[in-house]
Design goal:
about 450 residues; alpha+beta; 4-stranded mixed beta sheet; 10 strands; about 10% strand; globular
């Protein structure tokens, strides 16, 4: 019974390891296997020794939950056949299947006849944290991110008005007297929100005893993440208003400082709310006899676990056979198609395009933005196709021209694909190639040349 569960857990970790190492929103997932092991050990050694009374109903519930986990695993395989294994929804359904399978095993292992894993908060948290280590479905992620992004932008604007700083809001861009600051998706706070929720549940299970104290720490964790991200955004905006270049060092330094401070505050709160673990049982007390569990329960659960393992082998073989039969396509170094430097221009390379990999079904994504401050406010955009043909355009925007968002497109996908393009009001020469196009954004300001545009993220 334990061997198929261990294999499934290791396969799940291997499946999401690439996501954890490339997606900054899930960087805490690297510690998920270690946290899982620590909480299992803590719940077994120092957790409440709560055992469920054995009955036929408990065995039936364990088998039912395990079958539900197998069904979720099968649903993940069907989704992967439709949208690919890299899709965020597939990863989340796999995490649900893993949690449900472990839940069925816990019902059986925590019976008073087996007494292998106690049924307590620490063990339940160890299982449930896999959901916070998996990518959120795209629709849920977007809704939460846009809500946080709008809240941060509005809150910073109102704070500037209270402080007497003239500013106005244009979407997620705050226009100041001499500059503008944009709150990008990475600055919405969703990254720190997920990480703080994960840390809050971990500290509540590891260091804190008592339902009320644990609830307090778990509720404080997301509030602390949102407040800290707001403080960082307000600080960067005030620095930009004072004439400080907040790109580069200050942007990254404040991000790491807020992250470290948030972790220290959570750990300190957990230490204050924590209490010593319950006293172990006295050595003189006689140990209770543990009757062996019924063989049909162990055999049934082992059969369900083997069924899940067989489905995993089937999906893996199908995925490999599909990869072998696919036509060989030469890999395209997407970033190599866009110049990394240009004379007189400041070049920024986007590092958050991984979020579109599942939707566009490719990891070959690239975007570079070119900025230049000129007294006459000229705008230049360059489009580069995978075939190497280039098309450029120049224009003189009106004095009220504002920075436009970046265009993002995929390399290696079929057909022409372009989600956005710079909104410069001029005639543009399009690339004659019908293949996928890379678009670079242009940032334009006019008249005196003193105005700049800064994007935080």
């Amino acid at each position: 019974m334990s061997a198929p569960l261990a294999v499934f857990t290791v396969a799940f970790i291997g499946r999401l390891w690439g996501e954890w190492t490339t997606n900054p929103d899930l960087s805490h997932g690297i510690f998920a296997p270690l946290v899982f092991g620590l909480l299992l050990w803590e719940g077994t050694r120092h957790g409440t020794p709560r055992w469920l009374p054995h009955s036929p109903w408990l065995g039936g519930a364990a088998l039912t939950v395990a079958l539900l986990g197998v069904a979720l695993f099968g649903a993940a395989g069907l989704l992967a056949a439709t949208v690919g294994w890299a899709h965020a929804l597939v990863g989340f359904v796999l995490a649900m299947a893993l949690v449900v399978l472990w839940g069925g095993a816990l019902l059986l292992l925590s019976s008073d006849r087996v007494r292998a894993l106690p049924f307590n908060w620490t063990i339940l948290t160890a299982l449930g944290l896999w959901l916070l280590a998996a990518p959120l479905p795209e629709g849920t992620y977007r809704r939460v991110m846009l809500t946080l992004q709008h809240s941060v932008t509005t809150g910073v604007l109102e704070s500037l008005h209270i402080l007497g700083v003239p500013a106005r809001q244009m979407g997620n861009v705050i226009e100041l007297a001499t500059t503008s600051v944009g709150v990008e998706e990475a600055c919405s706070g969703i990254r720190s929100l997920i990480s703080c929720l994960y840390a809050g549940f971990f500290f509540a299970a590891w260091l804190v005893r008592g339902t009320g104290r644990r609830a307090v720490l778990i509720v404080i964790a997301p509030v602390l993440a949102i407040v800290m991200n707001f403080i960082r955004s307000l600080t960067l905006t005030l620095m930009a208003n004072a004439g400080t270049d907040i790109t580069g060092f200050w942007h990254d330094a404040t991000g790491y400082a807020i992250l470290g401070l948030t972790a220290l505050v959570l750990a300190g709160l957990a230490s204050l709310l924590g209490s010593p673990p319950p006293a172990p049982e006295k050595a003189g007390e006689p140990a209770m006899a543990r009757p062996a569990p019924p063989r049909f329960l162990l055999g049934g659960f082992a059969a369900v676990a083997c069924l899940a393992l067989g489905l995993g082998v089937l999906f893996a073989s199908f995925h490999r056979s599909g990869a072998r039969t696919a036509p060989a396509v030469a890999a395209i170094a997407s970033e190599a198609l866009i110049p990394a430097s240009a004379a007189g221009w400041h070049v920024e390379t986007a590092r958050d395009l991984y979020r579109f990999s599942g939707l566009l079904r490719t990891r070959e994504l690239a975007e570079r933005s070119y900025f230049r401050r000129t007294p006459t406010a000229s705008c230049r955009s360059r489009f580069i196709s995978p075939t190497g043909r280039r098309a450029t355009r120049r224009s003189a925007p009106s004095p009220r021209t504002r920075p436009t968002p970046a265009g993002r497109v995929a390399a290696g996908s079929r057909g022409a694909s372009r989600t956005r393009r710079p909104a410069c009001k001029s005639r543009a020469a399009r690339s004659p190639s019908p293949s996928t196009v890379f678009s670079c954004r242009a940032s334009c300001r006019s008249t005196s040349g003193s105005g700049t545009s800064t994007t935080t993220g």
